[in-house]
Structures are given as C-alpha cells and as structure tokens.
Amino acid sequence: MHLLICKDLKVSVGTKIVVKDATFYVNENELVLLYGPNASGKTSLAMAILGHPKYKIVNGRIIFDGRDITNMSMEKRVKLGLTATFQFSPDLRGITLEELAFEIASRYGMSQDQMFKLIELLKLHELLKRDVNVGFSGGERKRVELFLTALQKPRFVIFDEPDSGVDPESLALIGRAISEMVKNGLKGGLIITHVGYLAKYINATRAYVMIDGTMICHGDADLISNHIFRYGFKMCIKRFKGEIYELEEWNKRKS
C-alpha cells in the first residue's frame, strides 16, 4: 500500500520554479532514498510535502495515507504524523537536552523506557545535561535531531541529509536508530542524501535521483547507490541523440 504519493509535482518559491517534475511514492513500512547533488531541489521538495507556506505547489498532488493533502496546512499535516529532520538544527540556550526530551516524550506519550533506549542507542548520555546543540559537533547535532524527532512518534519522516558532515561512528548510530524507529511504529521514511553513506546502515528498498528539479531515474536502492558511488550523478541517465537510456540499460551496455 502506498503511504505517500507525490504525482507530477511542480513547486515554486516566489517566481522561481524549484521543483520542475517530481513523481514518486513510498509504501507503508518502507524506507526510500532520494539522491541528488546540491541545489537539485531535494529540500524544496521536502518543504512542499510538509506544507511550508513559502513553497507553492503549482501543479500536481500529494497523497498521504489515502488523503489528498496538497492544499492542507502544515499544522494539519504534522497532526497526521508527517515530520522531518533538518540539516541545520538551532542552538537552544537555557534548556537542556534532558529537559526538552522529557517534555516532548510526555507530550507524545513515549514511555521513559523507550526514551532511554533511544538515548542508549544514540549514545547521548554525556549530552543530556547540556543546553541543546550548544557546542555540539556535527555528528552530535544530527544524533540529537533524530532523537528529538523519534520522541514525537511520527508516522512518516523526511530525513533531510542525516549523513551530511557526520563522523563514521555517528553515521552507524543514526542508521541503527532509524531502523529502530521502523520497528517501533514508523510507517515510512524518505531519506534525502547527497553522498549516500547511510545506505549501507539501513534497509532501504528503492531509490530516486533528482537533478535540476526533476526526477531522472529510479530503481533498486542497492543498484542506484552503488552506481552513484562508482560513477557519480551524471551517469544516472545517459543521453544519445535524444534517446534516454536509464540506469539498468546503461549498465548492460557497459558490461
């Protein structure tokens, strides 16, 4: 069953078109990768799915759990269980990570046992008494962002570049935590990535590639990931005299 469907999406910010053509889906209980170089429209797509008022849907539809949410407010989408982790989380001075975690957990009904399991999984003990993100490393910020998101018990998460600027240890911990979220009620996730280092730590099934605001190819997550690691983004689609050879066809020709 499709949990999230984006069909023929075209998105603008002011007078600029930032997403030209995006069609994809995420099934229930599935993690899907979205690859693309910087400034390819990935984060703009995420903002449109979340309903950020700055990102206007010019064309297309967004369906979540059988409901058309294309024109739904961000607040209503969040209440349906849509949320995201972001690349750049703010410093929160005057409140410790422990205080904020207990507040979020109590609001969303997460048990203390579940919360402390996440703390252990993400190795956050030494950060609990510190103000949120103040002086944290890049890897620590990403782990904290994932932790605070998990406490909200979301149904669907857009993970925006969780592997960007992250040390190898944090990368492995983030992968394990996402897998734990799936076991504990997360119904689906879209993992936006530029580098794809997280791919080997999670059980993603499919992957899409976005370049210049357009979905240019998709396929098996391992196939797409390995191809990008070897050849980069330019070879996801090869154009010869107007003909488009998709990834699998190009691989056949190389072999």
Keywords:
255 residues; alpha/beta; 14 strands; four-stranded antiparallel β-sheet; 8 helices; single chain; Rossmann fold; six-stranded mixed β-sheet; 32% strand
Amino- and carboxy-terminal Cα gap: 35 Å
* Range of strand content: 25-35%
- Total tally of structural domains: 1
Query: Superfamily at the CATH H level?
Result: P-loop containing nucleotide triphosphate hydrolases
Q: Which residues sit in consecutive blocks of at least 5 with pLDDT less than 50? A: 239-245
Order of strands across the main sheet: 6-9-10-3-11-12
Question: What is the residue-mean pLDDT, rounded to a whole number?
Answer: 88
CATH domain topology: Rossmann fold
Structural class: alpha/beta
Q: Describe the biggest sheet?
A: 6 strands, mixed
Backbone shape: globular
CATH class: Alpha Beta
CATH architecture: 3-Layer(aba) Sandwich
**Number of beta-strand segments:** 14
How are the SSEs ordered, and which strands pair?
Layout: E1 2-13, E2 16-27, E3 30-35, H1 42-50, E4 56-64, E5 67-68, H2 74-79, E6 82-85, E7 92-96, H3 97-108, H4 112-122, E8 131-132, H5 138-150, E9 156-160, H6 168-183, E10 188-193, E11 206-211, E12 214-220, H7 221-231, E13 238-240, E14 243-245, H8 247-254
